[in-house]
Amino acid sequence: MLSKNQLRKLDVQDIAIFLSLFATRNARKTADELSISPPTVSYSLKRLRESLGDELFIRDSSGLLPTGRAFHIEPYLRSALEAINRSAEGFGEPDDRELPLELCVPEAFELLLLPKLMAQALSCSPRRILHMRKLSEKLPTEELLAGKLDLLCVPGPGAYFQLHPELERQSLFEDRFVCVARGNRPRQVTLDEYCDALHVYPSPWQSPRNMVDTWLEQLGRRRTMVAWASTYQACLNMLEELPCMLMLPSSLVSALRIPPGVQVNQPPLGCPNFTFDMVWAPGNDSPRRRWLRQQLLRICDKDERIGRAG
């Protein structure tokens, strides 16, 4: 059992990075020695400092100098790593295919792509394990660069989220919005109608804005939000009782329950389309991560509900 909860954040790679930094006094040499990227070293050192409550290494003209605390813990961490290595002797290297895949995705990914992705994962030998994490307002850039996260999915276009230059981005499919509200028949919603209406909004984070609000601001207009919910279906259910509108990705219409008396309308003219993009760190690529991206591209190519991005 660990004596401090902070230590639960550390893993074997953090220990290896500490010991290499202690020996080399140089972050670049550590990255080369362990065949990892420099951002991985930086991210791990940050975790070590937070977990152990000490700077551990102080930069000066000669490199990274260990603190007194670093000198104190070095023999203990070295012994721990040696013990871990001995425990694995005789069993060979772990199969990369058996490691879980960590994904950070919005709700649309889980509704559209996750069922078919899981079918592919279960057909593999050995079967792949997928962990879904909800998208938050702050992108998990450091975790991607450090190899703690395998794939991130975000809405496009690229200007909506500013990505780190060491991350790669590829569009999975293109989509457009539809405007959902109570009514007798589908119709084209005008810009004045849209801005005068009350709106409900599905947000995976605490921000009340998305690219639609940016588009309206460019026109000198705005919309009025009266409710935020964490899921699209919760917003749709509110439309049964409220005289409100919901902007919904067109691809999700067949994946959700549209309440009786609620119509799927065309949005105001000029409403922007968007892409659904995957983001990863090329510096931490691996066969299982490439498998994941290939499967998503194949799923999108075959799914008639969505249009593959060019």
UniProtKB/TrEMBL annotation:
<keyword id="KW-0804">Transcription</keyword>
<feature type="domain" description="HTH lysR-type">
    <location>
        <begin position="10"/>
        <end position="67"/>
    </location>
</feature>
<protein>
    <submittedName>
        <fullName>LysR family transcriptional regulator</fullName>
    </submittedName>
</protein>
<keyword id="KW-0805">Transcription regulation</keyword>
<dbReference type="Pfam" id="PF03466">
    <property type="entry name" value="LysR_substrate"/>
</dbReference>
<dbReference type="InterPro" id="IPR036390">
    <property type="entry name" value="WH_DNA-bd_sf"/>
</dbReference>
<dbReference type="InterPro" id="IPR005119">
    <property type="entry name" value="LysR_subst-bd"/>
</dbReference>
<dbReference type="InterPro" id="IPR037402">
    <property type="entry name" value="YidZ_PBP2"/>
</dbReference>
<comment type="similarity">
    <text>Belongs to the LysR transcriptional regulatory family.</text>
</comment>
<dbReference type="InterPro" id="IPR050389">
    <property type="entry name" value="LysR-type_TF"/>
</dbReference>
<dbReference type="InterPro" id="IPR000847">
    <property type="entry name" value="LysR_HTH_N"/>
</dbReference>
<dbReference type="Pfam" id="PF00126">
    <property type="entry name" value="HTH_1"/>
</dbReference>
<keyword id="KW-0238">DNA-binding</keyword>
<dbReference type="InterPro" id="IPR036388">
    <property type="entry name" value="WH-like_DNA-bd_sf"/>
</dbReference>
